Each structure stands twice: as structure tokens, then as C-alpha cells.
TrEMBL record:
<dbReference type="Pfam" id="PF12399">
    <property type="entry name" value="BCA_ABC_TP_C"/>
</dbReference>
<keyword id="KW-0813">Transport</keyword>
<dbReference type="GO" id="GO:0005524">
    <property type="term" value="F:ATP binding"/>
</dbReference>
<dbReference type="InterPro" id="IPR032823">
    <property type="entry name" value="BCA_ABC_TP_C"/>
</dbReference>
<dbReference type="InterPro" id="IPR027417">
    <property type="entry name" value="P-loop_NTPase"/>
</dbReference>
<protein>
    <submittedName>
        <fullName>ABC transporter ATP-binding protein</fullName>
    </submittedName>
</protein>
<dbReference type="InterPro" id="IPR003439">
    <property type="entry name" value="ABC_transporter-like_ATP-bd"/>
</dbReference>
<keyword id="KW-0547">Nucleotide-binding</keyword>
<dbReference type="InterPro" id="IPR003593">
    <property type="entry name" value="AAA+_ATPase"/>
</dbReference>
<dbReference type="Pfam" id="PF00005">
    <property type="entry name" value="ABC_tran"/>
</dbReference>
<keyword id="KW-0067">ATP-binding</keyword>
<dbReference type="InterPro" id="IPR051120">
    <property type="entry name" value="ABC_AA/LPS_Transport"/>
</dbReference>
<feature type="domain" description="ABC transporter">
    <location>
        <begin position="4"/>
        <end position="233"/>
    </location>
</feature>
<dbReference type="GO" id="GO:0016887">
    <property type="term" value="F:ATP hydrolysis activity"/>
</dbReference>
<dbReference type="GO" id="GO:0005886">
    <property type="term" value="C:plasma membrane"/>
</dbReference>
């Protein structure tokens, strides 16, 4: 079943075609990775999906309903949670309180237990009492994921979640992502190709604001256009 579809999604910044007529389908219960060279338009694209940036043209359907013009908070209410490269944790609150807020918003009656369960899930239960702003960057990212998961979202969008994580923490992150499906569908922007190839069931490659290819990890790896874009883009 398709959870989210975008058709002709477009966002230009002046003359720069950051996202330029992208068609995209996200299957429910899957892990879908979005990759592409720096500046390809990945963050802009997911910002359009969650409503952080208004769409210029095109449409977005989520769970069968048109959400193209909905404000971001209404998309969250419909089950779209996200984390971005710049974290939006409450730096002066404790780790516990950061997660307690979305747990409360969900209407939980067992606030403390649910909050600790969400923290435990991302491996931060031991740091519950710490002030969030004093966490290492990678742990702030994990805290944001816990905040997102505390909403029990239908879709979780993660923008470069492994950035700042130690190698030893990446296995835990992969296990975490696997543990949320199929209840939560995951859309992942990721530069670490080992993580992408290991986790994703479908990969979409953006380049210059357009879809270069979409398919299974094996098909993407074998795609000559993708290989050329990465060689040209300088990293993979
Ligand atoms: N608010 C903005 N105003 C002007 N240009 C922007 C804005 N946001 C993004 N851009 C430009 O749009 C293009 C796409 O940027 P975007 O951040 O979406 O790419 P990306 O694929 O996520 O890159 P990266 O992998 O480096 O994060 C870039 O050229 C970027 O400089």
C-alpha cells in the first residue's frame, strides 16, 4: 500500500532548481532511503513533505488525503514525524522532559513509563536526567528520534541520522530503525552507503533536484547513471 505520494513536486530558490518536478511513492511499512550528491535537493524535498517549506507546484498525498497545503503541525498530527540535521531539542530541559512532551501530547496516561520506554529504545535511558543541551551531537540526534517515535508516527523522516554517531553506535541505530517497521514507515536521507545498503528496501536517487533512479539497492548499485553522478559528485 502506498502511504505517501508526491507528484511534480517543485521548489526553486530564485534560479536554483532545488526540487524540480519530483514524482515519488513511499510504500507503507518500508525503509526507503533518499540519496544523492551534496546539494541534490534531498533536505529540500523532505522539507516539502513535512511542510517546513511551502510547495511551489505539485502535490503530496498522505494516507489517501491531499496534504499539499497543510501546515507542518497538522501533518505531525496526521502522523508525519521528522528530524533534521539541525536538532530541535529543548536544550535547557532534561533528556527525560524532552521526550515527556510528545508522550504527553499523544495523551499517554503512563507518562513516566512511556517516556523511559522511548528513551530506552534509542539507548538514552541512562542519560534521562542529563540536560539535553549537554549531550554529544550524535546523542542529541538520537534524542530527537525518541521524541519523534514518542508520537507513534505512521511516517518517520530522518535527515542524516547517523551523522555524529560513533561507529559502535551505528549498529544500534540500524536495529532501532528495523524495530519501528512496519508500524512506522521510514524515509531516510543518508550519506553512509553501508547504512543505506544494509537498511533500505528501496532507494531513490536525487540529482540536481530531479529523480535520477529509484529501485532496490542492487538495482541502484548497478545503475550506470547513479555511478556517474556519484563519481561526478565526489562522494558516495
Ligand atoms: N532556503 C534556501 N535558499 C536558497 N537556496 C537554498 C535554500 N535551501 C537549499 N538551497 C539550495 O538548494 C540546493 C539543494 O539543497 P538541499 O539542502 O536540499 O540539498 P541536499 O541534497 O540535502 O544536500 P546535502 O546532502 O549537502 O545536505 C542547494 O544548492 C542549496 O544551496
Amino acid at each position: 500500500m502506498t502511504l505517501l505520494s508526491a507528484r511534480g513536486l517543485t521548489r526553486h530558490f530564485g534560479g536554483l532548481r532545488a526540487v524540480d518536478g519530483v514524482d515519488f511513492d513511499l510504500e507503507s511499512g518500508r525503509i526507503h532511503a533518499l540519496i544523492g550528491p551534496n546539494g541534490a535537493g534531498k533536505t529540500t524535498f523532505v522539507s516539502l513533505l513535512c511542510g517546513r517549506i511551502p510547495v511551489q507546484s505539485g502535490s503530496i498525498t498522505f494516507a489517501g488525503q491531499d496534504i499539499t497545503r497543510l501546515p507542518a503541525h497538522e501533518r505531525v498530527a496526521r502522523g508525519i514525524a521528522y528530524t533534521f540535521q539541525i536538532t530541535s531539542i529543548y536544550a535547557n530541559l532534561s533528556v527525560f522532559d524532552n521526550v515527556a512532551l510528545p508522550v504527553q501530547r499523544r495523551g499517554s496516561r503512563t507518562l513516566a513509563a512511556d517516556t523511559m520506554a522511548a528513551l530506552d529504545r534509542v539507548g538514552l535511558a541512562g542519560l534521562a536526567g542529563q540536560t539535553a543541551g549537554t549531550l554529544a551531537y550524535g546523542h542529541q540526534r538520537l534524542l530527537e528520534i525518541a521524541m519523534g517515535l514518542a508520537l507513534s508516527p505512521r511516517l518517520l523522516i530522518l535527515d542524516e541520522p547517523t551523522q555524529g554517531l560513533a561507529l559502535s553506535e551505528i549498529d544500534g541505530f540500524k536495529a532501532l530503525v528495523r524495530s519501528v517497521i512496519p508500524e512506522t514507515t521510514v524515509l531516510l536521507i543518508e550519506h553512509n552507503m553501508d547504512v543505506v545498503m544494509d537498511l533500505a528496501e528501496t532507494i531513490t536517487v536525487l540529482n540536481f533536484g530531479q529523480t535520477l533512479a529509484s529501485g532496490s539497492p542492487a538495482a541502484i548499485r548497478a545503475n550506470p547513471a547513479v555511478q556517474a553522478a556519484y563519481l561526478g559528485g565526489g562522494h558516495a
